[in-house]
Amino acid sequence: MSVTLCITAFNEHENLYDLIKDLTWLHAQQIGLQVVIVDNGSTDDTWRTLQVQSLEHGEWLSIVRLGENRGYGGGLRSAIEAAGTETVALLSADRQYPIEDVLQAIREFQSSAQEESSRLILVGNRKERYDPKSAKFVSWFYSRTVRLLLGTELMDVNSQPKIFGRELLTQKIPWSDSFFFDAQLIAVAQQLNFKLISSPVRFVNRRYGKSSWSGQRIKVYRETLIEMWGFRKYLNKIDL
User: Fold this and answer.
1) Region for 129 from its dihedrals, namely left if φ exceeds 0, alpha if ψ lies in -120 to 50, beta otherwise
2) How far apart are CA 20 and CA 37, in angstroms?
3) Long-range contacts for 79-83 (Cβ within 8 Å, ≥24 apart)?
4) Whole-model pTM?
């Protein structure tokens, strides 16, 4: 089973060289890997770096440039649209998930897909986290709110990688452009009776750059919770 790793990058120029090294190693592991990286409206040298790298790795690396930032969800959907396989895996460009853990997750999904007749969605489970306690608490609170409002089973909604069949995105619902996209994926997958599996991953600190929502987590989560409440009411009215 081939898989396309869909990555969104916003002002990640400093991380891209090491990221491409990681991806080159991952591609060599014989897992049928393709990669799509979306420059999500960056204002630094992200696009120029991607152009240079795609010339060297063009057989398995595709790049897409968005003229303006379309948000976390919008950027990932653009990458999924450009994917050349039915199975996709979602990942950010900040290298906070060690590439060895990403490999293990992909292999676990591929193995499970061979054994299961049901549709699957795999989500990384952050067993080890090295971010600040305040970030861990906000993430904990958010995941439990998602469970309460949307009935999801996951303890860590925002973790990556997420691996699933792109058919999931064909559902005619108002997909979010924000960080709420993660919770939507899980809620819709459960509504469609996808089997949920998890794979342990580590979550390490950034080596370069700064998160696009660093310092505004509370604001982001507040806006996301408002969006989630509206989507909860929407889900109650439709039959997927």
Assistant:
1) beta
2) 10
3) 79/6, 79/7, 79/8, 79/36, 79/37, 79/38, 80/6, 80/36, 80/166, 80/169, 82/6, 82/36, 82/38, 83/4, 83/6, 83/34, 83/36, 83/166
4) 0.91
Cα separation, 79 vs 8, in Å, equals 7
Full DSSP string of 14-66: HHHHHHHHHHHHHHTTSS-EEEEEEEES-SSSHHHHHHHHHHHSTTTEEEEEE
Q: What is the pLDDT of residues 1-38, one digit of tens each?
A: 899 999 999 999 999 999 999 999 999 999 999 999 99
- Count of residues for the chain? 240
d(CA 189, CA 183): 10
Tokens standing for 40?
């999500």
Does residue 85 carry a pLDDT above 70? yes
Token pair, residue 167, equals 């058919």
- CA 182/CA 5 separation, integer angstroms: 16
- Phi–psi pair at 132, nearest 5 degrees: -60, 155
CATH: 3.30.70.1350, 3.30.70.20, 3.90.550.10, 3.10.580.10. Which one for 3-237? 3.90.550.10
Q: pLDDT tens digit string along 219-231?
A: 777 888 888 888 9
Judged on CB neighbours under 10 Å (0-12, 13-18, 19+), 175 is middle
Residue 212 DSSP SS3: coil
